[in-house]
C-alpha cells in the first residue's frame, strides 16, 4: 500500500508538484510517467525517506518491506549469488542466528536457529535467486563469480535481481529495462505479473509499460494525476483531456468576453447599474480555465545520403570474435540499400560482436566480408557516449567534423537536435545521458551515412526522443541494422529480423510476437528439464496398486473434462479476437512496408499509423500469451488425468 496525501515536493527553489493525493492498492502495478526533470525519481527518494516533503504526507509500508534498485552500489568482495541473496532479509537473519548459535555452543539456541532456517525454507529461497538470475540472462556458473568481475550493465542486472529477491509490500523500479535484452525484458514482464507487491515503475519503454502496468500516475500541470489502464490507454485519455480543457478554455473566454462587454457598456448607466454589478460578480465567480500549453512535437531527420549504392555489405563464411575466442562461425548475409534489419538474440550471443565486425571495429577471424564501393556507415555503439569529449561543447564536436562549414550552419543543424543558443556552447560533461545520446546521433547524422548501424540507441533516451528517433528512422532513405530491446522501435523501423544464437546468424521468419513465444517456451522447457532432473535424483516411492490407480485416473479424467470446458471456451474466444487483430496488424504492415507511403502520406498520418501499429502489437502479444497459457493449462490438466502413476 502507498498513499500520497496532499503531497508537495520541491527541488531547490522549484516546486515539482503540489496537492498530489493518490492511493496505490495492494498488488497494483503503476507506471510513473512525465517529462525528464519533472520529479519522478524525486518521488522515489521521498518514498524511501531520503528527502522530506514540503507539505503533506507519504504513507508507506515499513522501510524493510520496500524493495528498490539502488542507482549505485559499492562493489564488495562477494560472489553474485550471495549478493542477490543478501536482499532476502529473513534468510540473512536466519543464517546469522545459526552462525551465532554455532559459535556459542548453546544447544537450545542451535535448535531454534535451525528451526528458523527451516521456516524460511533456505532451499526454496536459493532456487528462487537462481531462477531470477537465469531470467535476467545469467548463466548458472555466473552465480559463483565475484560481483566485481561483471561490467556496469551486468551489475545493474545483479542489483535488479537483489531487489526482486526482497520480500516486499512495495517494489520501486526506476528504468529497470535499460540494460536488459529482449529475452530478459520478456521474462521481467511475466515475473511482475506474478508478484504480490504494489509495484511502481519509471520507464521510457512504452511497450514494456503497456504490458507491465495497470494504471498510470502522470506528473503534469503542477501535480500528479491518475489514469486507469496501461500507457496506450493513458495517451488516449490524456489527449481527450487536453481537448476538453481546450474547449472549456474557449467557452470561458467567450462567456468572459460577453460579460466584460456588458459591464463596460452599462456600468455607468443608472438604469443598468444593478445589472452591471451582477455581471461583475458573475465574472468574478467564473472559474478561469488554464490554456492548454501546446506541446510541439519534436522531430529530426537523418540527412539524405550523398550516395545510395545497391550493395552495401556482403559476408560469406565469416567468423567473428576476439583473438582466439571465436563467437560466431559460418556467417553469411547481404545488406542492400534500403533494407531495415533488426538483430535479435540474448546478451552474449554475439550481436554486438557481429555489429563491430561489420563496421570494422574488430577484424574478422575468418571468411570474407565485402564492403560496397561508396559505403558510408553511421555507427552508434552501446558505449558511444564514452567517446564524447566531456570538456568540449556540441559546437566543438561538430566543428571537428566540418572545419570549413560556417558556424551558423553548424548551429542551425545542432538546433534541430535541441542544442541551440548557449546550450550549443556548453560543455558536455554535466549533460544528462539522454542529451549526450542526442549529440551522438547528431554527429552520426551529419556524416550522411547510407548504412545506419545502431546498437541499443535508446538506453538513455526519454519517451519523446524515442518517438522522434522512430519517426526519423521510418523516413530515412538508407539501410538500417538495429540492435535494440525497444520493441516499439523494432516493430516500427524493421521489416526483416536476424537471430544470433548458438554461434550462428540465421534469418528469423517470424515477428517479435513469435520471438516472445520462442523465448517463453525455451524458458519453460529449460525449467521443466531442471525440475525433471531434480525429481529423478529423488528416491522413488513404492508403486501403488495399478488397478486402483487406473480407476482413480478415470474419475480424474471425467473431472478434468468439466474443468477444461470453460478453459476451451475462453481459448476459442481469445483465438477469434487474436485473428481479428492480427489481420489488422498485417494490413498495417503491408502499408508501412511500402516506401512510397512515407513520401506520399503526411507526417500526421504516418505517426498515427505507426502509433496504431505500436498499440496493436502488444494487444496481439497479450492475446497470444493468454492463448498459450490456456493451451498449456488445458494440456497440463489433461496430462495429469491421463497419467495413472
Polypeptide structure, described:
This protein is α/β, with parallel strands linked by helices and 645 residues long. Helix content is 50%, strand content 18%. The protein is built from 20 helices and 18 strands. The strands form four sheets. A six-stranded mixed beta sheet has the order 5-6-7-3-8-9, sandwiched between helices. A six-stranded mixed beta sheet has the order 14-15-16-12-17-18. Strands 2-1-4 form a three-stranded antiparallel beta sheet, covered by helices on one side. Helix 15 links the parallel strand 15 (451-455) and strand 16. Helix 3 (89-104) runs antiparallel to helix 4. The longest helix is centred in the last third of the chain and has 47 residues, at 546-592. The chain starts with a strand and ends with a helix.
Observed structural traits:
645 residues; alpha/beta; 18 strands; globular
Write the layout of secondary structure elements.
Elements: E1 2-11, E2 14-24, E3 29-33, H1 40-47, E4 55-59, E5 66-68, H2 80-85, H3 89-104, H4 107-120, H5 122-135, H6 152-165, E6 170-174, H7 182-194, E7 198-202, H8 206-212, E8 215-220, E9 223-228, H9 231-266, H10 273-285, E10 311-322, E11 325-336, E12 340-344, H11 351-359, E13 366-371, E14 377-380, H12 394-401, H13 407-415, H14 433-446, E15 451-455, H15 463-475, E16 479-483, H16 487-493, E17 496-501, E18 504-508, H17 512-537, H18 546-592, H19 595-600, H20 603-642
Parallel strand pairs: 3-7, 3-8, 5-6, 6-7, 12-16, 12-17, 14-15, 15-16
Antiparallel strand pairs: 1-2, 1-4, 8-9, 10-11, 10-13, 17-18
